[in-house]
Design brief:
Layout (H helix, E strand, L loop, with lengths): L20 H4 L38 E4 L3 E5 L20 H7 L2 H5 L5 E6 L3 E8 L2 E10 L6 E7 L3 E2 L2 H9 L2 E4 L3 E5 L7 E6 L3 E7 L3 E6 L3 E6 L3 E3 L7 H9 L11 E2 L2 E2 L1 H10 L9 H6 L5 E2 L9 E5 L7 E9 L2 E4 L8 E4 H4 L5 E5 L7
Antiparallel strand pairs: 1-4, 1-7, 2-3, 4-5, 5-6, 8-11, 8-14, 9-10, 11-12, 12-13, 15-16, 17-22, 18-19, 18-22, 19-20, 20-21
Length: 367
């Protein structure tokens, strides 16, 4: 059965219009959760910052790209807690170590403060720079914000203005990481690891053989991936069965407010990332996934495997709080809430409060 969502812990709510649910929660006080239950997962090794040998520091008003393996974005600059959030605020973040070391209470504190995460190579527009922080709009995360993109603050050190890399994004076919995490190497012999890249990281490919692929790396120039760790981005719609199979790969991954990777997902970060890996661009948050994705609405009596199903804050309400992927036979897969993990659960259990809001159907290829 799906764990109940504590009254003080919003799930993945988003207004029917205007801003994302994280922006509506800006300013929440620290949650008083007393549990010290740590999340599963071993701390990751500390990463060394990639030397900036290509490109320039990010500049306000100009495009840039994420140069770290995964950047965590915040709703305001300077919210990060000294000590607790250090693993994700430096030039070489370690999100696995960050998640694995936080208690339940420390994770709950992130609600309304962390906005999203983005992968190495993600294109951004830098809106403003304030000290060590940059306000950016993520090009590959649609949202119901004035910029039409998820917009929040990231450490400036995790960005680079690399025009050579950005040109390669438009002229070279991208490949994506297909493992939960894959080493990015500094040498063709695959002996020196630069960073570990999470699932769905996209980088432009230069060349490959049966052992390795040479890719552009923002701020660095080039790097290498093992051939078994990446594939070309799909060019045709997926089947529902393939999307469901991808989702099931992440059973047991901890829930993380704002998370978009196998180090931790929130509910809409989970669906966004699963579909992103199949080249299907969904809005980042659950409310926009329901109201602004352009996907057809599906009646409760017509649900089938592969539909996205949504819940509101109150029965009959319009503000969406949660999304799951329907598996058929009355079951869903979802990232439930802080302290839980990606799970398969009965639809009826998730709908225990009777606040089911509706469903949409992505475009799928015939099975």
């Amino acid at each position: 059965m799906s764990p109940a969502v504590p009254a003080a812990l919003p799930s993945d709510a988003s207004p029917a219009s205007s801003l994302s649910r994280r922006h509506t929660l800006l300013g929440l006080s620290a949650l008083g959760a007393a549990s010290a239950t740590a999340l599963a997962g071993a701390p990751g090794a500390a990463a060394a910052a990639l030397p900036l040998v290509a490109g320039q520091p990010a500049v306000a008003g100009q495009p840039a790209v994420v140069r770290s393996s995964l950047t965590t974005a915040w709703l305001q600059p300077g919210l990060a807690r000294p000590g607790v959030d250090d693993p994700v605020t430096g030039a070489a973040p370690s999100p696995q170590a960050w998640v694995s070391r936080m208690s339940y209470a420390q994770q709950a504190w992130l609600v309304g403060r962390v906005d999203t995460q983005a992968w190495m190579g993600s294109r951004v527009i830098v809106r403003r720079i304030s000290g060590a922080w940059a306000l950016v709009s993520f090009a590959d995360q649609p949202a119901l914000t004035p910029s039409r993109r998820q917009t929040s603050w990231v450490p400036t050190a995790q960005l680079v203005r690399d025009t050579t890399y950005m040109a390669a994004q438009t002229t070279r076919r991208p490949v994506q990481v297909v493992r939960p995490s894959a080493p990015l190497y500094a040498d063709a012999g695959l002996t020196r690891v630069r960073a570990h890249l999470p699932f769905s990281t996209r980088l432009p490919i230069q060349a490959y053989d049966i052992v390795r692929g040479r890719v552009w790396v923002p701020g660095v120039g080039v790097g290498w991936l093992r051939r078994r760790d990446f594939s070309y981005l799909p060019t045709t719609p997926p089947t529902a069965a393939r999307v469901i199979a991808t989702a099931k790969r992440f059973l047991g991954v901890p829930s993380l407010w704002g998370g978009t990777s196998p180090y931790g997902f929130d509910c809409s970060g989970f669906t966004h990332t699963v579909f992103r890996s199949h080249a299907v661009m969904l809005p980042r948050d659950s409310g926009p996934q329901f109201y602004a994705s352009g996907l057809p609405r599906i009646s409760a009596g017509s649900l089938r495997a592969g539909d996205l199903v949504f819940w509101s804050h109150v029965p009959g309400g319009s503000t969406i709080r949660h999304v799951a992927l329907h598996l058929g036979a009355g079951m869903v897969i979802h990232a439930p809430t802080v302290g839980a993990a990606v799970e398969i659960a009965p639809f009826a259990a998730v709908n225990a409060r009777g606040d089911y809001a509706g469903a949409v159907r992505p475009q799928y290829a015939a099975a």
